[in-house]
Fold these 2 entries.
Entry 1:
Amino acid sequence: MKIEIKKLNKVYPGGYKALDGIDLTINEGIFGLLGPNGAGKSTLMRILVTLMQPTSGEVLIDGRDISKHRRKVREMVGYLPQDFRFFAKLRSWEFLDYAARLAGMNSKKDRRERIDEMLTSVGLYEFRNRMANKLSGGMKRRLGIAQALIAYPSIIIVDEPTTGLDPEERIRFRNLMSDLSRTETIIILSTHIVGDISSTCNQMALLNEGALIYHGTPDLLVEKAKGYVWRAEVSQEEYEHLKEDYPIISTIPSGTGWEIQFVGEKPSSMKAHRVEPNLEHAYVHYMDNNLNHWNL
Ligand SMILES: Nc1ncnc2c1ncn2[C@@H]1O[C@H](COP(=O)(O)OP(=O)(O)O)[C@@H](O)[C@H]1O
Ligand SMILES: [Mg+2]
């Protein structure tokens, strides 16, 4: 299975261009959509789940235009919106039952089994009788994840799924996605947190101001930041200077000055040591350059 996004544009009423000519192919596996707030991640996801129409361009799933197969798309897709909320007064399991029925699971017995399975997967089984709106923030998010997965979707689209999750819940979520990625599933997750794009994502894209500025593996993105990350000992004065021109990644007091790490072309006069880049460095490097279509 594959999703092809072609020349996708979205201009909101009022004229704001939220997506600017996105071309992207997404294959099976975990796809991480990374970008700062306002980059257009939610806009793209809402288009993918057919809740919103693009201004121009198209999205194909296995060659079929989603705008012509909306019902079919909605059957295939499990979606967690960024602003996921509960409206009805339901117990956690009842909420999942409702979601399962909406998704077309007609057998009560199948639903029961699946609900228990999902509640266990997201660690909410012991809270199954608690009212959904009385769950903690992290638990609500987990119930949101469960409702997205309940009807065995072949495409999973989760918008900022880790918001409000504590570190343990994040790990559980990551493992859950890894397990799912062993099946023939496309998982697309958006995040503004670099740490969420872990080794579990085999593909990723970087979105900035509606434009796709990178598409590839996380490793390759890191690779591209090689030679652009530096560590140096600087005085207070040098630090003040450097700060104006370079993204500073870390600052540790050292003697009367600072030991800093920064990203960019090293000033030739400066004594600095190369640092092995990580994904965070690479992200800063890319965003700082804002190089359009640098993906080779
Ligand atoms: N319904 C809307 N009407 C007008 N502008 C919108 C609307 N929704 C989002 N935007 C704008 O589009 C841009 C992208 O938003 P969004 O897709 O939510 O980004 P992200 O999910 O990456 O934070 C933002 O500048 C946002 O303010
Ligand atoms: Mg968003």
Entry 2:
Amino acid sequence: MRLLYSDISPFARKVRVLAIEKGLSDRLTLEVVAPFQDESLRAQNPLCKVPTLILEDGEAVFDSAVIVDCIDGLSEPRLVPASQPARRRALTIEAAADGMGDASILIVRERMRPQGEHRQDLFDRQMRAVNAALDLFVAALADGRLSPDRFEIAEIAVAVQLAYQDVRRVSDWRAGRPTLADWYERVSKRTSMVATHAGVA
Ligand SMILES: N[C@@H](CCC(=O)N[C@@H](CS)C(=O)NCC(=O)O)C(=O)O
């Protein structure tokens, strides 16, 4: 299978981390694509986004949550919990992490606008989403929806998006959130996280 990805994309990193955690990374051929420059990606994915997974028969799979589901189904143990309520709780945390990533990308792009074209209302709304998602992760750590002893889809999705906060300097997310900061410090040392750090081949 070919994984079309970009080094800095947290969504693509989620897929790569999951594949490493499952011992399936050798099933993926990684191909770097620049989604904002390379329109040929649109033939595979009408949204022209990474990650996009191309199966052996040419079928294209997106977005990252669907790719995760596809790869997770290839082997046991599953990193997306199979039974409720664990499944919906993990997928909701993943959705919050992915949504925080979407909001962060909008913030980064808003910051790139020239002076005078800046939309403060849009910026503030996205920043509220980032901060509320971060607060949800703190609460999830306290009640067990996120765990220091697991590294499944919820934990992976949050870890890669926290890393993206740092890479793009989106927010000062550690301030006032010591438990989340401590948790991230631990999980960011995992082999899968180190191997997929932006800039690492
Ligand atoms: N919901 C998508 C989000 C993917 C996404 O936003 N990828 C970014 C890179 S981090 C992208 O390709 N953006 C190109 C664009 O928005 O045109 C997923 O989870 O796969």
